[in-house]
Amino acid sequence: MKIAITCVKKDKDSMIDERFGRCNYFTIYDTESKSFEHVENKGVTSAQGAGIAAGQQLLDHGVEALITGHVGPNAMKILQSGNVSIYKCSGKNIKEEIDLLLDNKLENINNAVPPHSGMRNRHGRA
Amino acid sequence: MKIAVLSGKGGTGKTTISTNLAKAMGWNYVDCDVEEPNGFIFLNPKVIKTEQVSIPVPEIDPSKCIGCQKCVNICQFNALAWANKDVLLFDKLCHGCGACSLVCGYGAISEVDREIGHIDVGNDEQITCMRGTLNIGEPMAVPIIRDLKKMIGNEKTIIDCSPGSTCSVVAAIEGVDYAVLVTEPTAFGLHDLKIAIELVRTMNIPFGIIINRGSHEKDLIEEHCEKEKINIIGKVMFDKDVAVLYSKGKLLVEHEKYKELFLHIGKKVEGEIACSLL
């Protein structure tokens, strides 16, 4: 199974980025080969529909689980259509989050946050 | 002949200026501020016709789709996605450009109309009034503004724009003969006015400034205009009478002293347009 994590830096010790559509990088962990892959999020450079672009990218990579902070409505639609399970991060680093997920200790996200929540400096939202 | 009224900053009095100018000069009025069309409150025309505005969005026939994903890749707006062997459509993001149906080699995509708003046409005693209204939750205003502008024709028209310097404003002022920039004598007013000036200059539209809520003293807008050699074509004073009329939804030109002021501004604008054509 491939697990994607939204992160700030292109590094497996990176902090998690709580945004989905506008996070900088995805770290993709393959539970079979136990290997890490870092990919740049195409959503960041999208003028609109960042969550959709990001979601599409994960589906193209064959990701089945996602650990992040908040997912918007459009991203939720595409991820659910692609049968990706979404989990709420717990504020740890990538390695620890993966361990928590594999121990079934992360909470499922089923509800989307309002659109554009991840854009900084917007009405004080995260 | 078309005059656009814009401002940069919101709440400076575009609708006040444009409705009163239209009434005083006897020009038609078109409300292109489709997210908040308020001009009809003051002009109170009798609506005689309402037309729907829609944009073409793709409809995918799954029986013909072979899953080549060309439509998903061509879409610049992320309105299409490929998930679980199906094309997903996010219709609010679709700009109706039609690239997806062009690129589909299997005839799986047809275009269907999706309503995004409507246009009202109304009659005042002397002038024709039009307004576009964007449906709540719709992100794209430009298609309605384009439709509105197609309906204007060559008649003398005042175009009331939305605030800022957005796509909507650009669409509304494209091809006008003159721009009236409404501002207020505050630091915010000046800041946003500068952006609006840059916009009309870039688009080569002759323009002049109207100061709203002005005082008898020289203000920062006048100082800036003097320095930049920009024409101030009028000033509406900060006056309780204005507030009272406005709060009742009345036009200022119903008041004799304002009627004269707007007739004067109107003449000045017409003079400016004549000069710009020389």
From TrEMBL, chain A:
Which residue range or ranges hold the Dinitrogenase iron-molybdenum cofactor biosynthesis domain? 13-101
* InterPro entries given in the database record: Di-Nase_FeMo-co_biosynth (IPR003731), DiNase_FeMo-co_biosyn_sf (IPR036105), MTH1175_dom (IPR033913)
User: Superkingdom of this entry's organism?
Assistant: Bacteria
Q: Which SUPFAM superfamilies match?
A: Nitrogenase accessory factor-like
Q: What's this protein's name? A: Dinitrogenase iron-molybdenum cofactor biosynthesis domain-containing protein
What's the source species for this entry?
Anaeromicrobium sediminis
What high-level taxonomic lineage is stated for the organism? Bacteria, Bacillati, Bacillota, Clostridia, Peptostreptococcales
UniProtKB/TrEMBL annotation, chain B:
Which keywords has UniProt assigned to this entry? Iron, Iron-sulfur, Metal-binding
Supply the Pfam families for this chain. Answer: CbiA, Fer4
SUPFAM superfamilies, sorted:
P-loop containing nucleoside triphosphate hydrolases
4Fe-4S ferredoxin-type domain sequence ranges? 56-85, 86-114
InterPro entries membership:
4Fe4S_Fe-S-bd, 4Fe4S_Fe_S_CS, CobQ/CobB/MinD/ParA_Nub-bd_dom, P-loop_NTPase
Alphabetically, the GO molecular function entries are:
iron-sulfur cluster binding; metal ion binding
Domain of life (superkingdom):
Bacteria
- What is the recorded name of this protein? (4Fe-4S)-binding protein
Its source organism is: Anaeromicrobium sediminis
